[in-house]
Amino acid sequence: MVTTNQSLLALVETGRTDGD
To answer: Global pTM?
Structure first.
């Protein structure tokens, strides 16, 4: 579960940086 959560968090962070 931790791995999945971290993966999702990384994706969200990347998306936010890329979007901004």
So the answer is: 0.27
